[in-house]
Amino acid sequence: MEQFRLPKIPMPKLELPQAVQDVLAEAEVKLAFRPKLLQLFKNCFPNTLETTTKLMDDGTTFVITGDIPASWLRDSVEQVIHYVPLAKNDPELQRIIGGLIKRHIQYVHIDPYANAFNETANDWHWNTTDETEMSPWVWERKFEIDSLCFVVRLAYAYWKETELTDIFDAGFKAAMRKIYELFKTEQRHFEQSPYRFTRNNGIPADSLRNGGLGMPVNYTGMIWSGFRSSDDACDFHYNIPGNMFAVVALRQMQEFAEWVFRDLDFLAELKELEFEVDHGIKLYGIYRHPEFGPIYAYETDGFGNYCLMDDAGTPGLMSIPYLGYVGADDPVYQNTRRFALSKENPFYFEGKAAKGIGSPHTPKDYIWHMALSMQGLTARTKEEKLEMIAMLEATDAGTGYMHEGFHADDPNTFTRKWFAWSNSLFSQLVYRAMQEGIL
Length: 439
What we know:
The protein is built from 15 helices and 17 strands. By secondary structure, the protein is of the alpha+beta class. The protein has 2 domains: 22-55 and 347-438, no CATH class; 68-344, Glycosyltransferase (Alpha/alpha barrel). The strands form 7 sheets. It has a 3-stranded antiparallel β-sheet. Strands 8-11-12 form a 3-stranded antiparallel β-sheet. Helix 6 packs across helix 9 (240-260) and helix 13 packs parallel to helix 15. It starts with 17 loop residues before the first helix and ends with a helix. It comes from Paenibacillus macerans (Bacillus macerans). InterPro entries: 6-hairpin_glycosidase_sf (IPR008928), 6hp_glycosidase-like_sf (IPR012341), GH125 (IPR008313). This is Metal-independent alpha-mannosidase.
């Protein structure tokens, strides 16, 4: 993301909920033998609450990304997801997370195609040259399939952890219907979709080609996406990890329909759509690589063209088990993982300081801290998890926080000093390692 130029929104510092304080106290004991890692964890674990979170008077919660004063649906979920396991017996965390879910639902009703929103209808926008149907509430209107999936992900995780049902009102059910209808529309983007997006800033990755429609696609049963989780335009508009995430979201929505709303008709519709998307992934989303065997492609157009790469953002190919589509032992995933962590992936870099996955969103040879954290979270061995934690610990450039991308030869050269999502993902990895007793 480019550096935003508007004044920063002052975010009042929240009092840390007791459950979060308890985790930090636990870390003081379990990480005492690694003082730098302990300090990193103490900085990063509460960072979202201390710097990006605002409790609103209407009972909702507004979470900015850090160095940008807007709330990305995707980022805001991943910024708080590591707190969800702590929320069952902590009313303060329930207020924060439940309030964020309620705000997400408001945003879906405002514009289900948008990826980032303002705190109020202040008419702030990432770029004033965007040609699309903007709203004063919308900071950016890049349609990314994962944005809506993340809304479902947080609500589902919160419900399963806390067993609280106050979020499931009529507005929530209507938002689920809106997500379903949009997914159905985008199965046939060229025939049915009203969505267009171009940005006149001279950066090709910020606009959809073909007059804002995107490049041609064949019907596959999968859901069309304009942009990736990096906010860059897709090369081919069926993003495979994004569609895998949609399958997971549709399964979770089925539980809402069956067990919360008792709506068997909606349940049947969701099941049918899940089958169509999953069938499309299996039929069109697997590429037979001459070295690695069957692997999941990153993108396809349904005409037999493939984008073979992985990007550090979530959802990406590395994060498939993290999202819950298949387990880490899935043979096609394991082939894909070997591909993603090889030089066959054009965005895998090795240098003097680190090796890992970067992104076309940042310069060549820049590895992302989020990619290292995700590699650790999806690793099957404790040795690989510990290797990733050590690499993250060694590449913070002395700042005490995680960043976006850093140069493989020199971690002191990096992008985004304040990137709360990256801090949260790192915290999730370290906390899981603490719980597993491998540190």
